[in-house]
Amino acid sequence: MAESERRGDALTEVPVVPEAPPPAPATAPKEEDADAAASSLNRANSFAPTESTECTPTETVKVSETLLDALAFKFPEAEREDLQRFLTARKGDAEKAAEMFAKHLQWRAGNLPIQLTEEVKAVLRGGLIFSQGVSKAATPCIFIIGAFYDTSRGLTVDHHVQATLYALERVLSGPPPTSRVSVFIDLRAHKGARNAAPDLFFIKNLASILQDNYPERLHQLVIYPFPWIAKAIWHAAKVFIDTRTREKIELVTGDASEGKPVPEEVFQFIDKKAWPKEYEGEREESIQYLV
Q: Which residue ranges are recorded for the region named Disordered (predicted)?
């Protein structure tokens, strides 16, 4: 339909724009809305900021909320904080974040909670990993004493991975619950330990699981003391670690021989009073292992 408007002696057709229909009432997401959710993700991605997009801080927040709303529509039972972590891991791409989160849910359903088998208990009791204290950034700390990594007693790489995930799940769930952790890896030789060389299979398997299922959970990873001989291992291992995670890793050089002290540079990230007294720290409480 159109109306005619006289301009001088000529008639000009002026289109009449129909009024926009009223917005539909909000309803809870249903299974049959899957196509709508996919469409919502596509629309959200069209608003995702790129390197060439100029946005004010306010506009960026609005875009972020749009992306989160799209993901929340598809995963109504998920916490927004969790969706935000996966969205960040996929650099604001809502479709890729949705795909990653869907795979994560499948992984959780098949792997969690971690089963405390006798082998997993043996790893946890063997001194490899424990949690104690908080860092200077107020994040709970997980300690990994590499000298106690031991696959010579019938324990496999997978048993060590499972034990590490069990520790991480325990720390994240609290009390109190937390969203990020700091990890300190001790590469020194220790009396009574196997003192085996770092296992690249363990590093690769664990890194893959953590990147796919625990994005943005790491606040900082401090590896100490980092001897020159370990550089070759690091160059081989870092290919399994995404760029964003590598930026959170601090390599503190020093002598990894048995009996050598913790490098002073480590205490930039944690106070000595939070450091285990069993490992030259000043924390009064003894280490409480997870099992």
A: 1-59
Query: Of 260, 189, 187, which is closest to residue 225 (Cα–Cα)?
Result: 187
Quote the CA–CA distance of 217 and 142 in Å, as a whole number. 12
Q: Angle at Cα 59 formed by Cα 58 and Cα 64, nearest 5°?
A: 100
In this prediction, residue 234 has a pLDDT band, given cuts at 50, 70 and 90, of: confident
Query: Residue 54 is which amino acid?
Result: E
pTM of the model: 0.77
140-145 and 181-186 strand pairing: parallel
The CATH architecture one would assign to domain 118-279 is 3-Layer(aba) Sandwich (3.40)
The strand order across the sheet containing 140-145 reads 129-134, 140-145, 181-186, 218-226, 249-253
pLDDT tens for each residue of 147-195: 999 998 899 999 999 999 999 999 999 989 999 999 999 999 999 999 9
Burial class of residue 153, CB neighbours in 10 A (0-12, 13-18, 19+): exposed
Closest CA to 173 of 212, 209, 214: 214
Cα separation, 43 vs 141, whole angstroms: 40
Structural domain boundaries in the chain = 31-111, 118-279
Contact 83, 68 (CB under 8 A): yes
CA distances (Å), origin 95, targets 13, 196, 202, 237: 43, 42, 31, 29
Sign of the CA dihedral running 255, 190, 285, 184: positive
